[in-house]
Write a structure and sequence with these properties.
globular; 3% strand; two-stranded antiparallel sheet; mainly alpha; 232 residues
Length: 232
């Protein structure tokens, strides 16, 4: 069999499988964005530690290391590029405002709204693709001159989607206002931030643990609220 299957790849493969489940669930039936976002957070958790796990195996071959970089980016594209777009499509399906518009609005209005929404989601995926490809190329060039781990990111990492979009969906549990437009605004801003040139310090272990803790709080809050609790 081609490929590599040692423990250094496990979290990356799990992230991809979680993302695949999230895509299928989000697009099933009338759409299940609030279930799909759980899989997005699981992918984010896997991604938070896959690099550190890989570096615990110092005897990796050069091909193994390059394979790990490529498969990580491909997994990230699905998990943090495609899955958030599918969650957005699912929100359109189950949004009360959008459902009413599609039922009562004119055909032209419906087509314009859906066309604009699809354009936003497609451009977001394109932004994620461009960022990941650019990161791979620049990282390969950087390794030739610097070596070691990268200390700064240029632009917003695509993995930030695992915190941004669950936060947006969490808002829906504490308000009666349909937050679908807010989600799409977040998609636009996040996609733009992927391609914007600004320096962002790469978090160390402490920063990663803080982000994991934030994700865990979001996960627990959404679980509790889905079971009928409401913030007062």
């Amino acid at each position: 069999m081609i490929g590599f299957y040692n423990y250094t790849m496990l979290l990356t493969y799990l992230s991809l499988m979680s993302a695949g489940l999230g895509i299928v669930v989000s697009l099933s039936g009338g759409g299940h964005p609030y279930i799909g976002v759980f899989f997005l957070m699981i992918s984010g958790l896997c991604d938070a530690f896959d690099g550190k796990v890989a570096r615990t195996k110092p005897d990796r071959s050069e091909m193994e290391q390059k394979f790990g970089i490529q498969v990580d980016s491909l997994s990230d594209l699905v998990a943090f590029g495609v899955l958030p777009a599918c969650i957005g499509e699912a929100m359109l399906r189950c949004s009360p405002v959008m459902t009413a518009l599609f039922a009562e609005g004119s055909l032209l209005t419906v087509r314009l709204v859906r066309g604009l929404a699809f354009a936003v989601l497609i451009l977001y995926m394109l932004a994620a693709l461009i960022r990941l490809a650019y990161f791979n190329v620049t990282e390969e060039e950087r390794q030739k001159t610097e070596g070691g781990a990268r200390k700064y990111y240029t632009g917003l990492p695509v993995t930030s989607a695992a915190l941004i979009f669950p936060t947006v969906l969490l808002i829906q549990y504490i308000t009666t206002v349909d937050i679908t437009p807010v989600y799409f605004a977040a998609v636009v801003l996040t996609g733009f931030a992927f391609l914007t040139k600004f320096r962002l310090r790469k978090p160390g272990l402490k920063g990663i643990l803080i982000m994991v803790a934030i994700g865990a709080v979001e996960f627990i809050a959404m679980m509790l609220l889905r079971n009928g609790l409401r913030l007062r």
